[in-house]
Design a protein that fits this description.
Structural class: alpha/beta
Distance between the termini: 33 Å
Number of helices: 10
CATH topology of the largest domain: Dihydrodipicolinate Reductase, domain 2
Mean pLDDT: 91
Strand order of the largest sheet: 3-2-1-4-5-7-6
Largest sheet: 7 strands, parallel
Number of domains: 2
Oligomer: single chain
């Protein structure tokens, strides 16, 4: 399936668990990547079927068909898009199939087996592998990702929260003793294809419903990345298909001005290819808005500061299937393979949406 014009350095990429939303996004991105040849895509319940039966947006762009995991051949990079627990239970097999792995599940996101057990209420199936995986958020872990063979995916809610708060943490501006509350509003696609097919159709999202009112499991990722012990996430699904908006309520150690905060955000993201700081004084889009990053690997971040200069709301908006999953996974692959970090990810967002 090599496309005309691909370079001799093209790598062979396969996707395990490609029938879900994240798997479909990975396939869409890899089909448009100049340095990638899609080798195989797997789905145990769809073996032999064209991928268009699950991803109709790919009709006319590929003739690849789903295969089974047992038929998986060796490749250069293997993306894992399996349900929670399945990657870890078969990691030895997958490691034998590819030189590099990016696992989009939650199986290898946490460094510590104890933290994993506390979060997921079960012992880790392959604890010896935790130290081999690097947490896959380039904005926090770029150098380690570039030298890694095994990289974890990121939680979408954790990513929106981490990117919103990272400038404050790096600049040492937070009053850590006051704690942080991150309130997230998310699209229906976050629940995955099975949940949607079970009655909550992503294209007809309408009912605002509670998803995790207290301490979502992605909280552990935020604590790990930011080094904050007193941080809590609540997540609610709203009338949105794709997107996650993190509104993080925190306090500063000392009063700050907008000028000082601009300095912190520029220091954190001034050179980042996919993070944009949104903090305008007027207009309809003064703060980050998830609809404006739909289909892209961008994260829009910003803040609102109280009159006393102490209370702050840090904001992060992402597409949960892109920057919160498949887009960041491809960004990690680019780093791991020495490609341009933005390769295959130069999509411009839609407006209006």
């Amino acid at each position: 399936m090599t496309r005309p014009g691909t370079s001799p350095a093209t790598i062979r990429v396969s996707i395990v668990g490609a029938s879900g939303y994240v798997g479909g996004e990975l396939l869409r991105l890899c089909l448009g990547h100049p340095d990638v040849e899609v080798a195989q895509v797997t789905s145990e319940s769809n073996v032999g079927k064209p991928v268009r039966t699950k991803h109709p947006n790919l009709r006319g762009h590929t003739d690849v068909r789903f295969t089974s995991i047992d038929a998986l051949e060796k490749c250069d990079v293997l993306f894992l898009g399996l349900p929670h627990g399945e990657s870890a239970s078969r990691i030895e097999h997958f490691a034998d199939r590819a030189e590099r792995i990016v696992d989009c599940s939650a199986d290898f996101r946490l460094d510590d087996a104890g933290a994993y057990e506390d979060t997921y209420r079960a012992a880790h199936p392959a604890p010896d592998w935790l130290e081999r995986f690097v947490y896959g958020l380039p904005e926090a872990n770029r150098e380690r990702i570039a030298g890694a063979r095994y990289v974890s995916g990121v939680g979408c809610n954790a990513t929106a929260t981490n990117l919103a708060l990272l400038p404050l943490v790096r600049a040492g501006l937070l009053d850590a003793d006051r704690g942080v509350i991150a309130d997230l509003k998310v699209g229906s696609s976050e629940a995955g294809r099975k949940a949607s097919e079970g009655g909550h159709h992503p294209e007809r999202s309408g009912v605002v419903r509670s998803y995790a009112p207290v301490d979502h499991r992605h909280t552990a990722e935020v604590r790990q990345v930011l080094g904050l012990a007193d941080v809590h996430l609540s997540v609610t699904s709203v009338e949105l298909v794709r997107g996650a908006l993190a509104t993080c309520h925190a306090w500063l150690a000392e009063p700050a001005s907008d000028r000082e905060l601009w300095k912190a955000w520029r220091a954190a993201y001034g050179e980042e290819p996919f993070v944009r700081t949104i903090h305008d004084k007027g207009g309809a889009y003064r703060h980050p808005e998830p609809r404006l990053v739909t289909g892209t690997n961008h994260a829009d971040v910003g803040w609102a500061l109280a009159a006393d200069g102490r209370r702050i709301v840090a904001i992060g908006a992402i597409d949960n299937l892109m920057k919160g999953a498949a887009g960041t996974a491809v960004q990690c692959m680019n780093l791991m393979c020495g490609f341009d970090e933005t390769s295959g990810l130069d999509t411009i967002g839609l407006h209006p949406h």
